[in-house]
Amino acid sequence: MSSLTEPHRIDPGHQADLAGRPSREDGGLAKSDATKQLRKLIKRLDALQELMYAESKHSLLVVFQAMDAGGKDSTIRNVLGPLNPQGVRVASFKQPSTLERAHDFLWRIHQQCPGGGHIGIFNRSHYEDVLVVRVKNLVEPAIWKRRFEHINAFEKLLTDEGTVIVKFFLHISRKYQRKRLQRRLDRPDKHWKFDPSDLAERAHWDAYQQAFEEALTRCSTPWAPWYVVPAERRWYRNLIVAKVLVDTLESLKMQYPEPKIDPATIQID
Ligand code: AMP
Ligand code: MG
């Protein structure tokens, strides 16, 4: 892994230490250089996705979690939006439906996991079941407490079966969230995004940070690491996400499949 992204990964077995990590960072880079780098990384990512599709051995699951207004939608649009839509699918997890609630918490998640050759993007995820569910007391503590182990085992299963998993927590400060929520009030084209319940969630800021701290600490594993991405400079956020994804796919050493034909023997008239 590169020296740019490595500091943002939570080493398995180590404390996430969200309070000690920056939410605003530039990595010593100028915005114009980072933007150029990002453009190249996205091209590379697109080529790697095609290679992954051709090889069809692996799939990639990318999980995004953040506080409200943390930039999940914008990261997905900017970093993964330019890829071939045939190879990418986004799943957004909202409050579970009655049917979903009648099953275990991973039931709806498993159905959205990417098949061979595909990239699956989770806008929120199974982690909501140890975050909002914990903060809002939606189930007994004994139930959410045992879910960390279930999550790690589930992610291990996916990995063993060929899915590579990377998880991003887009890290922002409480002050920055205020600014981004205010923007939704100030701009008529953003009013639709303002959800009054975001203010109720914001009131639980500390409880959410504590829930994230425990989830990220307990579920950053060698097979499915968590990255804490400083998300207040959006160009830096996009660069880190793109770089982690490219490095992750490069590390698979994928190959185009052996051709089933000998092109030298074929003539098209
Ligand atoms: P948004 O992503 O802003 O459209 O909001 C989706 C909402 O669904 C958020 O408030 C999430 O916390 C909530 N949500 C997602 N998953 C769950 C879950 N498993 N249980 C309860 N609420 C959830
Ligand atoms: Mg919302």
Q: In percent terms, what proportion of residues is strand?
A: 5-15%
Give a quick account of the main beta sheet: strands, pairing sense, barrel closure. 5 strands, parallel
Query: What is the CA-CA span between the terminal residues?
Result: 48 Å
Q: Supply the number of structural domains.
A: 1
CATH class: Alpha Beta
The average pLDDT value, as a whole number, equals 97
Give the low-pLDDT segments: none
* Shape descriptor: globular
By CATH, the topology is Rossmann fold
Your description of this structure?
The chain has 269 residues and is α/β, with parallel strands linked by helices. The chain has one domain (6-252): Rossmann fold (3-Layer(aba) Sandwich). Helices cover 43% and strands 12% of the residues. It contains 11 helices and 5 strands, in the order αβαβααβαααβαααβα. The chain has helices spanning 31-55, 72-80, 98-101, 107-111, 132-135, 141-145, 147-160, 174-186, 197-202, 205-219, 234-250, and strands at 59-66, 88-92, 119-123, 163-171, 226-230. A 5-stranded parallel sheet has the order 2-3-1-4-5, sandwiched between helices. Helix 1 packs parallel to helix 11 and helix 2 (72-80) crosses helix 11. The radius of gyration is 20 Å and the shape is globular. The model has no long low-confidence stretch (mean pLDDT 97). Magnesium ion binds next to loops.
